[in-house]
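Q:
Just now I want nothing more than another pair of eyes on a protein record. Here is the record:
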Amino acid sequence: MLTTHVVYDWRRKCYPCSIAAPHACDQPVYGRLRAAPTLAPVNVESFDERSGGIGEIDGVPDSPAPPQRSSGPMTWLKDTNHSAAVIAFLRRARRALPGDPEFGDPLSADGVGGPRAAARAADRLLEREAVTREVSLGALQVWQALTERVSGKPANREVTLVFTDLVGFSTWSLSVGDEATLRLLRRVSQVVEPPLLEAGGHIVKRMGDGIMAVFPEPIAAVRAAIAARDAVKAVEVDGYTPRMRVGIHTGRPQRIGSDWLGVDVNIAARVMERATRGELVVSAPTLEGIPDEDFESLGVTAKRLRRQVFTAKQGGVPADLTMYRLKTRRQLPGSKDDDGETLDA
């Protein structure tokens, strides 16, 4: 920006045309500059500054130019990776591949190690709606299917589920308070869990005063349950000795991570509910899965439970499911059980 002084010719009452050129009236201005009064400095702007620069009109700044969209290979890959049509096609293709087409979903990525662990990691790290996710999970899906085929182990193999519960625990804990309740739960856990683990069981979850465990074989589950029930009889807290009821059922539940879900899990819980007063009840599939010689070594007898007639029908249990209450041989045969039900041979 240029700055100069404009001198007013007070005699001629006009401004000079130029400092370096003679006045329009043919009078030189240099001689009068010293005596002439000087006004305040005036800024003289260039044309570009006065007009606001190239592209500006009437002092209105230019709007930003739209960004130029790249058309290179990286842009194509990015667009393809998030293409809804390509993602839908890959999901349909995964249904034709061997294995579980929902592999990688949080409710399908179960187990530890191998492709299942990789699927859980992929579920956390990969974008939800992306081609890369479907391709990666599709490869893991095939890997899982081939692994199961080579090992000969199906995805949902047969297991035996065990549910335990302390009879009357809620009423007792309400009367004694939290401190005594926690002492009892710790003590019960100390005597119940070792027999289950030593027999090859896996504790799935602890549910307050109960435990859910899973075993590979029915005989191991029943043997561990008998030992755990006997151990609880030695527990005493503030004069209270709990009684533990157990329900056992064999089936093919769905393994979801470290948990197990499905119809067979619900059946196992309902089997435990039939052990109303601290007894051990098993379903027919569990009893049928125990060889006769192994059953004899347990030291128990099996009595079939009559169907409930005068009580509400138990939900979540197949109509043709038979249950058995296991009694130790030292108990008198033909007697009534603790809740007054007559047992059939």
